[in-house]
Amino acid sequence: TDQTAVLRDVRRGMIPAHIYNDSETFALEKERLFGRAWLFVAHESEIPAPGDYVVRRVLEDSFIVTRDESGEIRAHFNMCLHRGMQVCRAEMGNASHFRCPYHGWSYRNDGRIVGLPFHQDAYGGEAGFRRKGQRLLPAPNLATYNGMIFISLDPDAPPLEDFLGDFRFYLDYYTRQSPSGIELRGPQRWRIKANWKIGAENFAGDMYHTPQTHTSVVEIGLFREPKAEKRKDGATYWAGNGGGTTYKLPPGDLDERLRYVGYPQEMIDRMKAAWSPQQSQVIGRDGFMISAASLFPNLSLVHNWPRVADSEAVLPFISIRQWQPISENETEVLSWFAVDAEAPEEFKALSYKAYLMCFGSTGMFEQDDVENWVSLTNTAAGSMARRLLLNSRMGLLEDGVQVSPTLTPDEFAGPGTARTGYSEYNQRELLNRWADHLERPQPRAATVEVGTGH
Ligand code: FES
Ligand code: FE
């Protein structure tokens, strides 16, 4: 394939259909995108105590994300320095040390090697194998925001704050509803036979699919704002490396609007304390309630408020999910339930049910969405898809003029660019960043020699 032509087409909003199922494209994504970008691996609330750990992947690379004895958060490549066995085989737990099952080398949870059986007899001690200073390979970069732990495989990655940019403003709605932040439960994990980009694009800005794909959810009355015309009144925004969608709520002030989506007053009071005046304005003054979003490349966030059973009451929930690529046509979905750590226990329990009903592995939205994405991925594999440039220019006239004007700061208080109406601005933003990464080769990483002191 002529990759230059592919990237040029993507940049003008014309998407070569085969990029949703192409091994060559996936090889480039692995090297140039996932080998470089900041990627979410865990939240601090998943490893609250010293010794707590979770094992998470970045494509084929397994990492042990731990809180060490001094409370510091670390991520180590889960490969024994001896002959490369996976050191930690459990998915989560608490351990002061990890012992390799193959020959028994052991490591502290800060990665340092401590035990090397028969060091003297087998190696002649330090003269043969330098144990001192040896540790499991750390992730080249690690940083956190609101307790969200990100790593990058690129030692020269820009600071996480710069990467997130103004998207931090929006990330706060999901991850900082009180000064204590959120706690995560899960993740549920499952695999779908779909390309990873489809979900990320959908959550970033696809308000257009809701009335069609989710017709049944609308018909059974799960939502208070099901109508297509309501959805297009919402705004989509893009800031930094992420963007998302909002619902336009009926008139009211901040308290009324947060009550409208089901928050109890004590949580509302904490949100007001945790958010900046500008963050409160987006909801309170402008009436836009944060809904789904994506952070480039493969993290998505959801905030929604389905009806509870047959009552008129609604219940909000937050979910964080990752589209973890397995191959060009398979994705592992990691889906966490998130809730304000200070929320009342009863709220936490009900909110969890609302999450499961909508976006758990058997959630109603989940079922609707994935059927489309699997079919799309299958159809993208063949030779005909290589003749098709999909139009991803919704919201733009042919001469590049916007269909809906950009909202002014008086209409939308948040940073970045926001517009109302159906559009594919955010999908284009996401794929433009994808193109930026794919066109830059990633330099070969330095190697680390084990046991020699070099
Ligand atoms: Fe781990 Fe040998 S491979 S101790
Ligand atoms: Fe959907």
From TrEMBL:
InterPro entries from the UniProt entry: ARHD_Rieske_2Fe_2S, RHO_NdoB-like_C, Rieske_2Fe-2S, Rieske_2Fe-2S_sf, Rieske_N, Ring_hydroxy_dOase_asu_C_dom, Rng_hydr_dOase-A
Lineage, broadest ranks: Bacteria, Bacillati, Actinomycetota, Actinomycetes, Kitasatosporales
Protein name: Rieske 2Fe-2S domain-containing protein
Organism: Streptomyces albipurpureus
Lyase found in the keyword field: no
Domain (Rieske): residue spans on this chain: 38-151
SUPFAM superfamilies on file: Bet v1-like, ISP domain
TM regions (residue ranges): none
Record keywords, A-Z: 2Fe-2S, Aromatic hydrocarbons catabolism, Dioxygenase, Iron, Iron-sulfur, Metal-binding, NAD, Oxidoreductase
Highest taxon of the lineage: Bacteria
Protein family membership: Belongs to the bacterial ring-hydroxylating dioxygenase alpha subunit family.
Pfam families attached to this UniProt entry: Rieske, Ring_hydroxyl_A
Keyword NAD attributed: yes
